[in-house]
Amino acid sequence: MSSEASSPRILVIGTGDTKCDELQFMASVIKEAGGRPVMMDVSILGDPPYSPDYSKHDIAKAASTTIEDIAESGDENTAMAAMAKGASALTRQIYEDGLVDGAIVLGGSMGTDLALDVAAVLPLGVPKFVVSTIAYSHLIPPERIAPDLMMILWAGGLYGLNSICRSVLSQACGAVVGAAKHGTRPDRERPLIGMTSLGSSCLKYMKYLRPELEKRGYDVAVFHATGMGGRAYEAIASQGGFAAVFDFCIQEVSNHHYGTVVTSGPDRLENAGRAGIPQIVAPGAVDMVDLQAWQALPEIFADRPYHAHNRLIGSVTTSPEGRREVARLIGQKLARADARIAFLLPNEGLQEWDKPDEPLHDPEGLNAFLDEMRRAIPPAVTLREVDTHINTPAFSEAALAIFDQWVAEGVIPEGRP
For 285, how many CA atoms within 13 A lie in the half-sphere containing its CB? Predict the structure, then answer.
């Protein structure tokens, strides 16, 4: 390992005027771990008692303004949004210039707001860590979380250092240095195929499709569509990161429509089409809504069939009219795409638990969805009905046939065996 690789440069971001002790402690841990701290100060009113590598004036300049104008902008939210804009732009430039290998940001709710913007501009595979007083909170919208973001709760350390705070900060700094030293970044030797699913107890097509795609020379990433998995999928799709996608579990569209916390944001099923990525789409598990199993069912679902998957997550089926609403929403999202799309409609079922004798079997609801989905498919989308259940080999074979045809036509780049 070269000395450069063994001494990764870690960008350390925080408000040095109010958190100087914590930030300087983090710099010392990074040094002890074999890294090199690069300090970025995002203070607005005060100045840190040390000389940062990138000052608040540098941040303001990157936002095309001055720190004086930011301080006089009217309120703390407006001011911090301007600092987030400048910090993100400067961080991206620093990374592209080859000056840092990873980043760690420290903050409360305001610092976390800025940190999410900074993390979003760093490519997948660049270590990014946020130490936050609201880590894992529902205050953080899923669509703002970078797909490989690491977070830790800044427990007990909002004002000054103590033994708990030192423990948290040292873990975070050790983690980001270790990731920069030893992390393997995604390669592009093989075209990447994105696929969405739930666990194999509910959806099974990936068991057939993944080995077949790998035989054809593709790398396959399967995303667990339980909120954050779909968010990661959408984030990579928005950057044009896939050669094609099998978006076969779009349940998060239903989840978001019904307002559950198991959401990947309002733009689910939109970014691949916006980026021009060829899509083969299917409505896997879209007849269900996922909820926290540890809370009482909302009133709207009180009388609906329910399946407890584990102690964290459970699923209810939606009403026939609710499924028609979701079908129309799917059609609206597909209509926004600027890409080749085929929509596979398996007319004998959408997930394992809707089969006869299973807890979520509902022929009336399924027929309502199928009927409305046929009406809702935009003219530019190819509708392919498949007389089978989504979990049968016949469904996967139909999907693979479309994929192979698109490869032959040059719509999808050829794999590299």
Answer: 29
